[in-house]
Amino acid sequence: PTLALRGVQVWQGLLDRPDQEAIVRDIRAIVAAAPLFSPMTPYGKPMSVQMTSAGRFGWVSDRSSYRYSETHPSGVAWPPIPKSILDIWGKVSGSDRVPECCLINLYRDTAKMGMHQDRDEAEFAEPVVSVSLGDEGLFRIGNLTRGGKTESLWLKSGDVVVMGGDARLVYHGIDKTRVGSSSLLNGGGRINLTMRVVT
Ligand code: MD3
Ligand code: FE
């Protein structure tokens, strides 16, 4: 890694522009089969981030629950995780398992993600690997409990982040993106991929 922040490993610039373009092409095919949607929060207000997934499981939410599901809200199975994305897991995760979910988050305009823990998975011993594409995003990392001091880092297109060990359950979020900072995505915006072992 090029940087470590509270146990989170950051590989800055791991993916070159051709790698990023190939992944974006693969994501387009996933989105064509499993369209992006705005998950509903318990408050009844949709999240500002749009999402879809690839892999055996995808992440879905409605007013009553957040959970992993084997089907998209439309009822179809999620597309498989492309090799271009699985290869990154192989390079940086240090895990013997294969990711069962690749969550795809799209941030447009003022989209953000509040501070939260990722704890819907059964196996916290397995890391989460994140890939940033397109506009820069201001990532904030906190602590194992809500509140306290936080640290921030701008994630750029091609950066890969590994959350393993003690860092797996820290609170984190995305405060904002720098709209127009990247030409990678048609229509602009930021895409974040997170690969997870779910079961
Ligand atoms: C630290 N996504 O999908 S990725 C998420 O950029 C999520 O879209 C953000 O948080 C995004 O759940 C941040 C970096 C990340 C992902 C998972 C983590 C950091 C993490 C899990 C534990 C600790
Ligand atoms: Fe998260």
Summarize the structure.
GO terms for molecular function: broad specificity oxidative DNA demethylase activity; ferrous iron binding; oxidative RNA demethylase activity. With 199 residues, this protein is an alpha+beta fold.
Number of strands: 13
| Neighbour order of strands in the largest sheet | 1-2-11-8-13-6-3
Bound molecules: N-(carboxycarbonyl)-S-(naphthalen-2-ylmethyl)-L-cysteine, fe (iii) ion
Q: State which percent range the strand residues make up.
A: 25-35%
Oligomer: single chain
CATH architecture annotation name: Sandwich
Termini separation comes to 27 Å
Number of helices: 2
User: For the CA atoms, what is the radius of gyration?
Assistant: 15 Å
**Structurally, how many domains make up the residues?**
1
Please name the fourth-level CATH homologous superfamily: Alpha-ketoglutarate-dependent dioxygenase AlkB-like
Largest sheet: 7 strands, antiparallel
Instruction: Provide mean pLDDT, rounded.
Output: 96
Considering DSSP H and I runs of 4 or more, what fraction of the residues is helical?
10-25%
Q: What is the top-level CATH class?
A: Mainly Beta
Contiguous runs where pLDDT drops below 50 for at least 5 residues: none
Provide the succession of SSEs. EEHEEEHEEEEEEEE
> Which shape, going by the Cα principal axes?
globular
Question: Keyphrases for this structure?
Answer:
single chain, 199 residues, alpha+beta, Jelly Rolls, seven-stranded antiparallel sheet, four-stranded antiparallel sheet, 2 helices, 13 strands, 14% helix, globular, binds N-(carboxycarbonyl)-S-(naphthalen-2-ylmethyl)-L-cysteine, binds fe (iii) ion
